[in-house]
Specification:
The longest helix has 60 residues. Helix 2 crosses helix 3. The chain is mostly helical and 112 residues long. It has 3 helices and no strands.
């Protein structure tokens, strides 16, 4: 039961915080304007449900496209990381060989 009390406390705290914030005139005005705007939008979409359905389809399509693009990008990056894993030992070998060649050349060059 203490979990139940916890959530009730959270709810009551939120309500108390909201009520206290409404003591500020600017906050009260903003909340009233937001509620009016929200009510107007809900009324509009209740009267025009196909418009809301179309907006949802467009948003869903954009989201799907974005997810597909991100998936492609992740696959591309994973592929490049794998290529780097394959190339890195070769590059390390070349760098070591080059370093050894320069070290060997320095030994043979007489300094004045």
């Amino acid at each position: 039961m203490s979990t139940n009390k916890f959530w009730k406390g959270i709810l009551l705290g939120a309500l108390a915080g909201g009520a206290i914030s409404l003591l500020d005139r600017q906050t009260r005005t903003s909340v009233v304007e937001s509620c009016k705007k929200g009510t107007k939008e809900v009324s509009h979409y209740i009267s025009h449900p196909t418009e809301m359905a179309e907006k949802i389809k467009v948003k869903t399509s954009k989201l799907r496209s974005t997810v597909e693009q991100v998936s492609e990008d992740v696959s591309f990056i994973a592929e490049k990381v794998e290529e780097l894993r394959d190339v890195t030992p070769t590059v390390v070998g070349i760098v070591k060989d080059t370093k050894e060649a320069f070290a060997h050349d320095e030994e043979e060059i007489p300094y004045s």
